[in-house]
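Fold these two proteins, one after the other.
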Amino acid sequence: MDANAPLERYRALRRAGELDPDPAQELAAEKLQMLHHRLAQYDANQGPNKGTGWRQFLFGGSQKEPAPEGLYIYGEVGRGKSMLMDLFFDGAPIERKRRVHFHEFMGEVHARIDKFRKTPDKDRNGDDPIPPVAEAIAEATWLLCFDEFEVRDIADAMILGRLFGRLFELGVVVIATSNRAPDDLYKGGLNRQLFLPFIETLKQRLDILCLEGRMDHRLARMKGVPVYYTPLDAAAQAALDKAFLNLTDLAAGRPAEIEVKGRTIAVPQQAKGVARFSFAELCEQPLGAHDYLELARHYHTLILAGIPELGPERRNEARRFVILIDVMYDNGIKLVASAATEVEAIYPAGDGGFEFQRTVSRLTEMQSTEYFEAPHRLLVDG
């Protein structure tokens, strides 16, 4: 028995009572287990570094061992995709492996392409940056594990087919988790017809698995736990810290940036579909509905610290807060918040005070168990 294999580790967590029974998760763990064993038998000397050595001399390129088929796991937030990736990646029986957020990886790819193009002609091989970039990636890593595989940028969409085609040729094995099925990637994007061959390549090279299930396992940890804390004191801060830990298994998240119509929203902390902001960062900045909609596309839960009591002189902040809550409510985004006062007293008077009563009603409903257990609706256009 291989104690590092994902299915064994998954079942150990089940036996320890840390996971509830979930047939969809067990199926995913079984598929990852099969891949784990194939990787253990995969000869790296015939993988990405093929083309050199005695095997190539004796047998030639036609005798290369085929790379194991990768896996693409998709499903709604909170279904356990990241947990399963943890179990697989930590025990993967190879050294040249890397786990990375997909957007971070593509940022690195564009930087490599830019560096290639700035290299003098005499110092580079040809004019096409894709083959050397793919070869450099494959030289360093032949198991690539992507978190949150998502394509929104036309610049990414236009190079993915050739880049991944070459990576697959070089023997790189790809595992990915995503909230979207392959056929929904880059949906509605500019010139999407040029992207469709890449989707077909993904479906040919990777086993596609929908992680179905009705329970959001991370959000289930918040069942029966208050999600609105007042007043603004050390206890409220500690409660938000604990909520982030419960929802992400991390004490702190990593910063991120989200592009919205040519502008950038800085996300101070985020992990596994949860983003953490202060009231000032979201409602005292020149943000609007499009910005909040983009946050709804990326995150299923928002932890918001420091909602103040607002008076008439802060009507702009109150208006942004109304828009933020409307977007969250309409898309089923969960909210964990700390505030200076109870919901009814956040904005008792001022321009839009009467309309703010709808926000009071929504904030109250968003604290209910029914709201917190409802699925992420994501009404925004993808």
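Now the second one:
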Amino acid sequence: MSAFKAVVIDKNQSGQSVAIRSFDEADLMDGDVTVRVSHSTLNYKDGLAITGKAPVVRRFPMIPGVDLAGIVEASSNPEFKPGDAVVLNGWGLGETHLGAYAEKVRVKGDWLIPLPQGLSAEQAMAIGTAGYTAMLCLMALERHGLSPERGPAIVTGAVGGVGSVAVALLAKAGWHVIASTGRPEEADYLKGLGATEILDRGELAGQPRPLAKERWAAGVDTVGSTTLANVLSMTKYGGAIAACGLAGGMDLPATVAPFILRNVALLGVDSVMAPKALRIEAWNRIARELDHDTLAAMTTVIPLDQVLEAGQKIVDGRIKGRVVVEVA
């Protein structure tokens, strides 16, 4: 087909516009693999792109969507052939390169990995960048030498996509998980994912002290700013926090006290440009370690024509767990 359905963001003198419309295959960007997209997902970054709340999109027109699962339609890359099932996360998709909220994409084959064995395309997108990032966080904590015997692990923004998967992965690995959220009505949901304790995010919202009472040995932070500063101040001696999000802001109003007096480590985790070998390791571990029933319990599936509304909801903090977008 020469034309296909896509979400297209454009910009003119009056501002940004976004609509679902026909897009011509001839206008796809350069790449050596063309993929027919079956599923995508909704991340916070996708919501920012759709709403224009932050300058995620770097060129116009842009098709948003940072994740995809689909089938190779054409390839000049020796690693992939027509009919291969593939997954893509990051690499500027939906930011600088036309993204996944379209029935077709053309990308560099180096960005793709095979669909992990044991996962359907829908399950892979239920995991998406959020789940893949959560696994990268767990792997970073493990590389630092931390294990459940050291004490509890905290997850901030626990009801969100990264947070939900992080709770499930940490619990499956044997951690006592403290789930921080501003939505106490979701306590049963979080406990169903494996959380042992629910912590009101208000306890992490006040002016951070240089050092506070030691409460956890490890953590996954998706919020940043004051929340992360408080989390660090309460981390046990020799502990570490994997930071992967900035929903609360890019600032960090902390002191060096946790780092030099308690030997605490702050582990930055990037999923967008992570090397291929690390991506494959993370995806293969997710396929093995994330319980599929637990994944289903945190997942909602929507058609492409509902993604604009869902994008506003995720920015407003009204999305729970993971959202899969059926593209085709």
